[in-house]
Design goal:
Helix 1 packs antiparallel against helix 2, helix 4 crosses helix 5 and helix 13 packs across helix 14. Helices cover 47% and strands 16% of the residues. It is of the alpha/beta class. Strand 5, helix 14 and strand 6 form a beta-alpha-beta unit. The protein has four domains: 126 residues, NusB-like (N-utilizing Substance Protein B Homolog, Chain A, Orthogonal Bundle); 39 residues; 56 residues, Sun protein, domain 3 (Alpha-Beta Plaits, 2-Layer Sandwich); 190 residues, Vaccinia Virus protein VP39 (Rossmann fold), CATH 3.40.50.
Amino acid sequence: MDRNRISAYYTLMDIENNLAYSNLALKHHIRRGKPDAPAFVREITYGVLKNKMYLDYVIGNFVKTPIGKMRKSERIILRMGLYQLIFMNSVPEYAAVNESVEIAKRFSSGSEGFINGVLRQFIRDRAYIGPPDRAKGEVEHLSLKYSYAPWIVELWLASYDSETVEALLAAGNMTPEFAIRVNQMKITREDLIERLHAKGFSVRPSARAPQGILVNGSNLLEGRLYKNGMFSVQDESSQIAVEMAAPQEGDTIVDVCSAPGGKALAMAEKMKNRGRIYAWDIYHRKLSLIEQEARRLGIDIIETGSWDSTRLNSAMINCADRVFVDAPCSGLGVVRRKPEIKYKENPAELAELTSKQLEILTASANYVKPGGLLVYSTCTISKDENQGTIRKFLKRNKAFEVKDTLQLLPHVDSMDGFFICSMRRTENVLGE
């Protein structure tokens, strides 16, 4: 039996049963199952997750039992088989069907005939199967075609034109490039590119992030270059957010929602490990991730601490040259990496998020020295969470003025969807 498909099955079942994060579940089951083609495992796993609603819609055309009442094992095996038949041209039809039947024999005893029948009927009738007619309902059509919860489609249609929304939905189903950030305290970008190329990796410099490199290849994080702290994994958009904060040697910086610490570490590198960064997070257990990475990178200017950043830390008022607020958000800009975000069911959460974002931003403003910068970022493209939150903040905080804003969009910029706004404190009076 194919170990690659078995590993994908275990991963998908783990996510279904335990609401496990896809990236962590994949890492665990690849390590445990030792498949000979990990890229194939990732392709099936992420492919099924990204297209789950559409796959279930297709299944519904061939079965009488509602998808929610089927056994989980049947559901997952059918999704895997259909994903291979619909989206993976490299997989022969007979292989997709036969391997699905073999998995059913092991994990869904008694349903082998059912699995075989559904997949073979799809092969016969596939020309007649497609998403609902767009003319009869744009939200339903786009929701099923690209597998997004309907409220997300509605949210984006309220902010963008139909063509842009479809491009966003399609981009969210693409596989992101693997980006790393050079640790400029230890090596130049040019030297790291040369060394990675010599080791057989396909590499090219980021056009937007000065310390960014885009890499293709296997086991990048197993080598000495990574273990010796020459680079870190960080998407280009996140690196650009740090560039807009413009940290300087000797700065005092507060990073209020820091874990797992990528931006704090990037700022420390740009500061050449001179100055002080206070990296806070509400979850104390996550702080060790920052400390561990700092040791790997050779950084000792980061002081971690557990703090609820909706509350004012009076000991830090007027202390910081720069304050970075990477706010909790809906995450709709990173669905390429976390497809489970597409299926969140409660849009009411957005109202709570925007309120929390404003609380954090308002408290954090107090730490900025006159003349200092306050940087707000999210990994979403929701205008309420981005421009809306900034508008509300500025209305209450006359001491700040916008220096620069940037909205990165996956279908335009080929990177994670990110919003970044830098604001300068111009007066001593904060709040109302």
